[in-house]
Amino acid sequence: MEDKNKISDNPSYAKLRTNVLGFSNLGRLIKIFSFFGSKDDKLENALSALPALKKQTEYFLQLPDRFNEHFSKSGWIAHESMNMPLMEKAIELADHDQSNKASNELADYFTSPQIAWLLNRFRTSPELALRYNLIEFAYLDTLEKRFYSAVPLLLMVIDGIVNDISKSKGFFSEGTDLTAWDSIAAHSSGLSSIRDVFNAPRKKTNDLEIFLPYRNGIIHGRDLKYDNAHVVGKCWCTLFAIFDWKQALQKQKDNPPATVKLPTVRESLHQIKKTLDDIQKFKSLNDKLKKEIEQWKPREIDPSVIKSKNFTKYSPEEEVDALVKNWMNKNYGKIAEQQYHFASKAVNLGKEAGKVRSELHDKVLKEADIISINDVSPAISVVTINIKYEFNEALMEKQIALRMICATESGETAINGQKNIKWRFINKFMYDLYF
Fold it and tell me: Could you list the residue range(s) of the whole structural domain that residue 284 is in?
């Protein structure tokens, strides 16, 4: 990668360098600060921290380039919404000749519930929202390790989304322009680079395991062993990068490149320090969450002890028990609140309650018993219930598997067993009640 073609030379990054790193002579900077007055304690504190901030800023600016230099050829690229502590850890491992371990860390992250917050933004883009049901299927398949189905779904979604955005060609077409002004994901070392890697010709049937999502080999049935966390993780990484590319295109359209008034040195220092503090805080929370996920184990629940009196607070079975009671009481508004919504925008609960009413008003629940609880991942449990209900004057009996997913009060990743979390059901079961 040539110096003139680095992400760190993007306008937004270059501006930071000009404002802070350009002051190579600290004495000159002190003279500049003297015009503000020598009794400004806050200013003097900022000045004393400048050498460390300069070093940290340069380190921060170089991260995306360093990441792509290490990993773009193996199918991972930096993008705006990428987990910064994860990027740092991967780079550190690769710098110490532990690229395989770094790739495992990336694969673990991009196949974990930690990517849920990224999915929540997809409804803001028409091209992604149109395919959101397929994205949901791929997400659930990923969490439950059905990689054989998640990978083809994601490859189709990726190609179709880019086709709609470009108005002419899909992601895997060589002529598709995947660049954008002032973007990390859409830098020439990003999406364009991995597109070429994923698009490699696969002319022979291969029954050896692959670790790159070769589109031609997978879709055309030539690469047979693609179902692993590395392949699906790289598909997710690419999809998030495509969303960031779309955002960059929209930003470029709404705010064309123009001469921007540079902030003062004081403003620059404040902003950079805030950014670095935010990164450190996020890194600490991320490390804590990852440790809890690694230590998590599914419960082994004897069906004979599945009684409502034994349900603990903040458990998926407690939420299912509440769902059953709400159904019996025809409290459709409460049921609407219990649904899991992937959308990042506020949900119209009145409208959702109307949908629930239209599906359940003619299905009168008479009995319901939870018969099994299966913790399939740190954030997902499947609670199976046996129900009896009246429909069209007939008594029906059916087993329903309710897929429950948890999150914190603020919508962030949660883990089964934590307190102050919310369990919600993914609405699939209502459409099975007609048969």
Answer: 3-130+166-203+234-295
